[in-house]
C-alpha cells in the first residue's frame, strides 16, 4: 500500500531550484532528520533539480514510509524517457548525500528516486502528525534566492566550524597516538629483549633436560638389565636350596631331630620367599624393558573368574573374611588372558593379605564403553597422600602389617604396568579404616 504524499511540486524554471532546496529542507526538518542530514537532502535535491531542469518540467513528490524503518522518499520525474544511463552517471557523486538513489527509465519518462532513513530518536509520525506536516508545508511561502543564499552561507559556516573542530580533535588524537606509539615501541623493545633472554634460558633448560632424560633412560635401562640378570642368576641357586630342603625332610633321608627339621623348614621358607621376590623382580624388569607383548584373544570372563575363585580359595581360609567373586557383568573381553589374570590375581592376593575382617570382593561392569574390574576390600585402608606411592617398587604403607603371608612391594607396581600394556589404567580409592577399592579399566575392544 502506497503512503499518501506529504507534498507535491513542479520544477519549471531555474529559480524553482531554490524553492526545491527550501522545501526539501523544510520537509526534512518536519519529519525529524538531523541538521546535517537536512542540508545533505536539500543539496541533493537542488543538484538533481539542476540536472533535470534542461529536459522540461519535473514533478517532485515527498513521501514518508512508516512501516518498518521510517524513511523519507523523494521521487523526481520528468516526461522524457531514455535518459536513465546518462543521468545515473551524472548523479553518481550526488548519490553519496542520501542513503539510496535510483534512476529508472520507464515508458512514461525518467524518474530519480532518493531515500533517507529517519534517525532512531525521530518523533513518531502518526496520521495526525502527518496531516499537520502537510498543512504546514501547504502554507509555506518560498523565500527569495538571496534568502536561500544566506541560509546556505550559514550552513557552510557551520560546516566549516565543525570541520575545524574535527581537524583540531584529529591533530590532538594524532599527537596522543604518536606519544602512545613511542611508549609502545619502547615497551616492545623491552619485551623483545626480555623474550630473547627468556628464549636463551629455555633453550639451555631444554638442552639440560634432554641430557638428564638421556641419563635417566640409560639408568633405567641399566637397572632393568641388572634386575633381569640378577633375578635370572639367583633363581637357580634359590631353587636348588628349596630342592635340597625338600630332600632333607623326605621320608627316604636320614631322620632329623625336631630342631633340625625346624631349621630346615626355616631355610625352605626363606628360600621360597626369596624365590617369590626374584620372580617378581624378573617380571617387573621385563615389563619395564617392554619385553612383554600381549597376545590378544577373546577372554571368557566367566571362566577366568572361576579360575581365580578356585586358585585363591586356599588363601581365603580365615572365617572372618568373606571372599566373593561375583558373576561377571561383561561376558567377553578382548585382551590377553594370562596378563589380565595376573593383574587380578595380584590385586586379590594383596587384598587378602591386608584384610583382617570383613570382605574381599571382585566384580566387573560395563562403563562408558569400557570394562571396569573392581577389587574392593575392608582392610586397613591407605591415606590419600600415600595412594600413589604404593605403586612404587618395594614401597609399603608405614604401620601396615599383612595379616597373612608376606609382601614384597612389587605386586602393585607390576599390576599397574601390566594394566598399561593392556591399554588400560589402574587406580585406587581408599581411606584409613574404611578399606580400599582398586579399579582396573580396560577398553572392551583393542
UniProtKB/TrEMBL annotation:
<feature type="domain" description="Histidine kinase">
    <location>
        <begin position="229"/>
        <end position="446"/>
    </location>
</feature>
<keyword id="KW-0902">Two-component regulatory system</keyword>
<dbReference type="InterPro" id="IPR036890">
    <property type="entry name" value="HATPase_C_sf"/>
</dbReference>
<dbReference type="Pfam" id="PF00512">
    <property type="entry name" value="HisKA"/>
</dbReference>
<dbReference type="InterPro" id="IPR050736">
    <property type="entry name" value="Sensor_HK_Regulatory"/>
</dbReference>
<dbReference type="InterPro" id="IPR004358">
    <property type="entry name" value="Sig_transdc_His_kin-like_C"/>
</dbReference>
<dbReference type="GO" id="GO:0005886">
    <property type="term" value="C:plasma membrane"/>
</dbReference>
<dbReference type="InterPro" id="IPR003661">
    <property type="entry name" value="HisK_dim/P_dom"/>
</dbReference>
<dbReference type="InterPro" id="IPR036097">
    <property type="entry name" value="HisK_dim/P_sf"/>
</dbReference>
<feature type="coiled-coil region">
    <location>
        <begin position="146"/>
        <end position="212"/>
    </location>
</feature>
<dbReference type="GO" id="GO:0000155">
    <property type="term" value="F:phosphorelay sensor kinase activity"/>
</dbReference>
<protein>
    <recommendedName>
        <fullName>histidine kinase</fullName>
        <ecNumber>2.7.13.3</ecNumber>
    </recommendedName>
</protein>
<keyword id="KW-0808">Transferase</keyword>
<dbReference type="Pfam" id="PF02518">
    <property type="entry name" value="HATPase_c"/>
</dbReference>
<keyword id="KW-0175">Coiled coil</keyword>
<keyword id="KW-0597">Phosphoprotein</keyword>
<keyword id="KW-0418">Kinase</keyword>
<dbReference type="InterPro" id="IPR005467">
    <property type="entry name" value="His_kinase_dom"/>
</dbReference>
<dbReference type="InterPro" id="IPR003594">
    <property type="entry name" value="HATPase_dom"/>
</dbReference>
Amino acid at each position: 500500500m502506497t503512503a499518501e504524499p506529504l507534498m507535491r511540486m513542479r520544477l519549471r524554471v531555474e529559480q524553482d531550484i531554490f524553492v526545491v532546496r527550501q522545501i526539501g529542507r523544510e520537509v526534512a526538518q518536519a519529519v525529524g532528520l538531523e541538521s546535517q542530514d537536512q542540508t545533505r537532502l536539500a543539496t541533493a535535491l537542488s543538484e538533481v533539480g539542476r540536472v533535470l531542469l534542461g529536459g522540461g518540467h519535473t514533478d517532485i513528490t515527498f513521501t514518508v514510509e512508516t512501516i518498518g524503518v521510517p524513511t523519507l522518499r523523494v521521487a523526481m520525474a520528468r516526461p522524457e524517457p531514455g535518459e536513465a544511463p546518462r543521468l545515473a552517471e551524472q548523479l553518481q557523486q550526488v548519490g553519496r548525500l542520501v542513503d539510496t538513489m535510483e534512476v529508472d527509465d520507464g515508458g512514461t519518462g525518467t524518474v530519480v528516486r532518493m531515500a533517507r532513513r529517519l534517525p532512531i530518536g525521530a518523533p513518531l509520525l502518526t496520521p495526525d502528525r502527518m496531516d499537520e506536516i502537510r498543512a504546514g508545508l501547504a502554507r509555506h511561502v518560498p523565500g527569495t534566492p538571496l534568502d536561500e543564499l544566506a541560509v546556505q552561507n550559514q550552513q557552510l559556516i557551520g560546516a566549516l566550524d565543525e570541520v575545524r573542530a574535527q581537524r583540531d580533535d584529529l591533530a590532538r588524537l594524532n599527537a596522543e597516538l604518536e606519544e602512545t606509539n613511542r611508549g609502545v615501541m619502547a615497551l616492545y623493545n623491552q619485551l623483545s629483549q626480555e623474550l630473547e633472554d627468556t628464549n636463551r634460558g629455555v633453550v639451555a633448560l631444554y638442552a639440560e633436560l634432554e641430557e638428564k632424560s638421556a641419563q635417566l633412560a640409560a639408568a633405567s635401562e641399566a637397572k632393568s638389565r641388572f634386575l633381569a640378570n640378577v633375578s635370572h642368576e639367583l633363581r637357580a641357586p634359590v631353587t636348588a636350596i628349596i630342592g635340597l630342603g625338600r630332600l632333607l625332610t623326605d621320608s627316604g633321608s636320614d631322620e632329623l631331630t625336631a630342631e633340625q627339621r625346624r631349621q630346615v623348614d626355616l631355610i625352605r621358607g626363606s628360600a621360597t620367599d626369596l624365590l617369590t621376590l626374584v620372580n617378581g623382580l624378573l617380571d617387573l624388569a621385563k615389563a619395564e624393558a617392554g619385553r612383554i607383548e600381549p597376545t590378544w584373544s577373546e577372554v571368557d570372563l566367566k571362566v577366568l573368574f572361576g579360575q581365580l575363585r578356585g586358585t585363591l580359595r586356599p588363601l581365603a581360609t580365615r572365617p572372618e573374611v568373606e571372599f566373593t567373586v561375583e558373576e561377571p557383568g561383561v561376558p567377553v573381553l578382548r585382551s590377553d588372558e594370562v596378563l589380565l589374570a595376573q593383574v587380578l590375581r595380584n590385586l586379590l592376593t594383596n587384598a587378602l593379605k591386608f584384610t583382617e575382617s570383613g570382605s574381599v570382593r571382585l566384580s566387573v561392569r560395563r562403563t562408558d564403553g569400557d570394562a571396569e574390574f573392581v577389587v574392593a576390600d575392608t582392610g586397613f585402608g591407605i591415606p590419600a597422600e600415600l595412594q600413589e606411592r604404593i605403586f612404587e617398587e618395594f614401597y609399603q604403607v608405614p604401620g601396615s602389617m599383612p595379616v597373612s603371608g608376606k609382601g614384597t612391594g612389587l605386586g602393585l607396581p607390576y599390576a599397574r604396568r601390566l594394566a598399561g600394556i593392556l591399554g588400560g589404567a589402574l587406580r585406587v580409592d581408599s581411606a584409613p579404616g574404611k578399606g580400599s577399592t582398586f579399579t582396573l579399566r580396560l577398553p572392551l575392544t583393542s
